[in-house]
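Records of this kind hold a single protein each, on a pair of labelled lines. Below, a sample record shows both lines together.
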Amino acid sequence: MMNVVFHVLTRLRRLCMMLALTWPLAMVSCTFPPLDGSARYEGRRISKVTIVHQGRKWVDEERLRNLMTMKKGAVYSGHAADEDLKSLYESQLVDDAFIRVAPDHGQVQVKAVVTTRPGLGAGPHVLLVGNNAFSDQKLFLEGFKGNGNSRLFYRTKVEIAGKKMEAYYRRMGFSGATVRLDTKRSKMWPLHALPEQEYYLQVEEGVRTESSASPPSEAHR
């Protein structure tokens, strides 16, 4: 019986997430009482985050991890889990997703169970290195929004995204921050086929020297 209720609750959460994405001004709340007891794990450190694929694996695991703020060593919260689910759905890389939590010697293990969409996982991967003040999720949002011109080479898109991320850092008070494409580490055309391409953006944050409207602790979410 509990499995049936959990299945129904998962579907309701998914519908709620899709509704919230479609009508962001509708003030939809997607918070449901967790049936797996995960509420009792609030505030515990995360010991491990695992991606579990239901069905065929269409999307690279690292690409999904870059969309999530929950990492090893971070503090678990139901709010963070909901935000990560929202981010996964916003990416349009998944048809279904839910989070499960299990105890682990005073900490918690987080498992993201996903059903990915076919045909969307292939293509270049972008990885960030050196960012501590802001999550990958936040920087990708700042860097790639409005950067969808398909006539541009992908390397150009990544370099433009790096400039936008750098500008965001400086708006947030990191006046000496730089975000540069690591050409030595990256695997780029024409030596690599499109699905094999990897672009590494090296972040040098420097010291936060100015105050800003939103401190890093808030912008990280």
Observations:
- The helical segments are 2-22, 61-65, 78-90, 136-144, 154-171, 216-219.
- The domain at 2-116 is CATH 3.10.20.310 (Ubiquitin-like (UB roll)).
- Confidence is low (pLDDT under 50) at residues 1-8, 21-29, 31-35, 217-221.
- The CA atoms of residues 192 and 198 lie 9 Å apart.
